[in-house]
């Protein structure tokens, strides 16, 4: 099984020998790769929808790994039993969906040693939730594929100390490491806020104007961190 760069980057962060649960597996490419390469003895692969579950079952059968990829149909972590997995992978979903899945099963989360998260949006909300719930941002990686930049967050149990929430919003490890894709990543965040500000600026209400001002201040702060003029 050959993986896309995004999925290969996730696979590289899986500690060898760990028991992974890939939540929202869809095609099950990552679980199949992990067991075929001998990185994991077993992977639990779950999906909430019947269609992806069936597709995953077909791929698992094609690759003759039915004894090593355990497929389950279910919503988020409800498909897992406590202490069954050491590592959770949640990739290709929105950051707020990932946050809701993690938040709704504290009894499963208490046994997890590493989270590998690849949010498609709302990474800041996800980081704030992680840090408020006993997780530290152990590492962050940016991956470019098909003209899109993907973020991967590795979180582990622990305390994340931050001097300014803006670092948590943008990615504390990305900023420290000065990731090669950081400049483009931050420019994309600035563009997103500039669009929000433009939308608010045309509104007539004073509330919208106040919000626009707050967004303007945030943009200036991000530009300061990014070193943009
Ligand atoms: C875009 S696919 C990502 C597939 C794969 N993880 C990847 O990164 O390539 C998202 C998958 O998550 C599943 N999903 C969404 N919400 C879920 C939930 N609450 N529990 C389990 N799976 C979920 C969807 O059915 C879909 O198959």
Descriptive notes:
- This protein has 229 residues and is α/β, with parallel strands linked by helices.
- The protein has 2 domains: 5-161, Rossmann fold; 184-226.
- The chain contains 10 helices and 7 strands.
- Strand 1 (20-23), helix 2 and strand 2 (43-47) form a beta-alpha-beta unit.
- Helix 1 (5-11) packs across helix 2 (29-36), helix 4 packs parallel to helix 6 and helix 9 packs antiparallel against helix 10.
- 32% of the residues are buried.
- Bound molecules: S-adenosylmethionine (SAM).
- Residues 23-26, 46-49, 52, 75-76, 91-93, 97, 101 line the site of S-adenosylmethionine (SAM).
Question: TL;DR?
Answer:
The chain has about 230 residues and is an alpha/beta fold. It is built from ten helices and seven strands.
Tally of helical segments: 10
Q: Main sheet?
A: 7 strands, mixed
Share of helical residues: 40-55%
Q: How do the strands of the widest beta sheet line up side by side?
A: 3-2-1-4-5-7-6
Termini distance?
Answer: 45 Å
Radius of gyration: 19 Å
Give structural attributes.
229 residues, alpha/beta, Rossmann fold, seven-stranded mixed beta sheet, 10 helices, 7 strands, elongated, binds S-adenosylmethionine
Which helices and strands occur, and which strands form pairs?
Elements (H helix, E strand, L loop, with lengths): L4 H7 L8 E4 L5 H8 L6 E5 L2 H13 L6 E5 L13 E7 L1 H9 L2 H4 L4 E6 L3 H10 L2 E11 L2 E10 L7 H6 L1 H6 L4 H20 L4 H21 L3
Parallel strand pairs: 1-2, 1-4, 2-3, 4-5
Antiparallel strand pairs: 5-7, 6-7
This protein binds S-adenosylmethionine.
């Amino acid at each position: 099984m050959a993986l896309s760069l995004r999925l290969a980057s996730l696979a590289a962060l899986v500690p060898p020998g760990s028991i992974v649960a890939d939540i929202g597996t869809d095609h099950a490419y990552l679980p199949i790769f992990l067991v075929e390469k001998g990185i994991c003895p077993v992977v639990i692969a779950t999906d909430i929808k019947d269609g992806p579950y069936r597709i995953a079952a077909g791929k698992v059968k094609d690759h003759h790994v039915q004894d090593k990829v355990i497929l389950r149909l279910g919503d988020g972590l409800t498909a897992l039993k406590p202490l069954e997995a050491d590592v959770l992978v949640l990739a290709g979903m929105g950051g707020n969906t990932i946050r809701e899945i993690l938040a709704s099963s504290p009894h499963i989360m208490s046994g997890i040693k590493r989270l590998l998260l690849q949010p498609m949006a709302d990474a800041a909300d996800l980081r704030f939730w992680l840090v408020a719930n006993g997780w530290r941002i152990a590492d962050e990686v940016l991956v470019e594929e098909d003209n899109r930049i993907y973020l991967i967050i590795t979180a582990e149990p622990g305390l994340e100390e931050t001097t300014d929430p803006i670092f948590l919003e943008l990615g504390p490890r990305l900023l420290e490491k000065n990731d090669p894709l950081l400049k483009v990543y931050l420019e994309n965040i600035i563009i997103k806020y500039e669009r929000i500000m433009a939308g608010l600026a045309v509104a007539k209400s004073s509330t919208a104007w106040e919000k626009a001002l707050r967004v303007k201040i945030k943009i200036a702060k991000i530009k300061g961190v990014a070193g943009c003029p």
